[in-house]
Amino acid sequence: MSVPILNASGCLDALTAPEVARSLDAFVTKTVTPFPREGNPPPRIADTGQWMLNSIGLQNPGIEAWCAESLPRLRELGIPLWVSVGGFSAGDYTIVCERVDELAEIDVVELNLSCPNVEEAPETAAELVAAARAVTTKPLYAKLSPATGDLAESARAVADAGADGLSLVNTIRGLALDPTTLRPRLASGAGGASGPALRPLALACVYACARAVDLPIVGMGGVVCGKDALDLVAAGASMIGVGTALFSDPSTPDRIRAELTTEVRSRGYASVATIRGAAHESVRPSVVSTI
């Protein structure tokens, strides 16, 4: 069995591209908040070559409208569903997680604890995880930022607070200027930077957290080919998230599976599972995926 492949939250609209979504092992929704959000003003996306900047601002219809309008159609995909939950306080996360806990269709909750395009909640990541844990029995994955000072310590803190897994990493804050006007290309100024240049940061974060906690990790950040996925698995990832690459190549999930299989076999390994954690001095026991 190959490593499960998911989309990074916000990088695929399953309702307009259902066949692409069905090529994944699970679909991760765009972040949902308690109440509707219009998001940031346009322009909200800028391509800089090795980076893609976005400042969507968590645009979404709010949890109740999402449950009524989007969830019934997402159910038709026939694959596991992860819902990304966001907010601006522990109370916000509690409202959404409590509602999601009632939904049999949702398999996993991914807590967006590090969106660089909006104001952060005043609580720590661990406090937000604890608030969510108190109102839901569903598996909780904490999505963390590569900009966190001591990511390994943060991983330990969210694990102690009740996280069942980690999603590493979210985008990192970046700025692009218009070459003519020398003003920011995004209306909001800076935005979340993703793309191939994020890959070394993501790899370092997965490596550090895999040494710190015994939790399954979704490794993401700049994944465009099977070798990228292989590196994240060797660093300790149990699953792979694909983001920016989906915008230019919708066949990325199937292609990465094929390329990853080739990479594993060319190195003489029997399966992806046998290579997990190979970057560490002592290979940790394989963690069972939640998919």
Topology diagram in text:
Blueprint: E1 5-7, H1 18-22, E2 27-28, E3 45-47, E4 52-54, H2 63-75, E5 81-85, H3 90-100, E6 106-112, H4 125-133, E7 140-144, H5 151-161, E8 165-168, E9 172-174, E10 191-194, H6 199-212, E11 217-220, H7 226-235, E12 239-242, H8 245-248, H9 252-266
Parallel strand pairs: 1-12, 2-5, 5-6, 6-7, 7-8, 8-11, 11-12
Antiparallel strand pairs: 3-4, 4-10, 9-10
Helix pairs in contact: 3-4, 4-5, 5-6, 6-7, 7-9
How does this structure look, described?
The longest helix has 15 residues, at 252-266. Mean pLDDT is 94; it is low at 283-288. The chain is α/β, with parallel strands linked by helices. It is built from 9 helices and 12 strands. The protein has an 8-stranded parallel β-sheet. Helix 3 (90-100) runs parallel beside helix 4. The protein starts with a strand and ends in a 25-residue tail after the last helix. 48% of the residues are buried. It has one domain: Aldolase class I (TIM Barrel, Alpha-Beta Barrel), CATH 3.20.20.70.
Low-confidence stretches: 283-288
By CATH, the superfamily comes out as Aldolase class I
- H/E order of the elements? EHEEEHEHEHEHEEEHEHEHH
Outline: globular
Distance between the termini: 12 Å
Structural class: alpha/beta
Number of E-type strands: 12
**In angstroms, what is the radius of gyration?**
18 Å
Binned, the helix content reads 25-40%
Assembly state: single chain
How many domains in all? 1
* CATH class group: Alpha Beta
Give the percentage of residues in beta strands: 15-25%
The major beta sheet can be summarized as: 8 strands, parallel
Q: And the CATH topology?
A: TIM Barrel
Neighbour order of strands in the largest sheet: 1-12-11-8-7-6-5-2
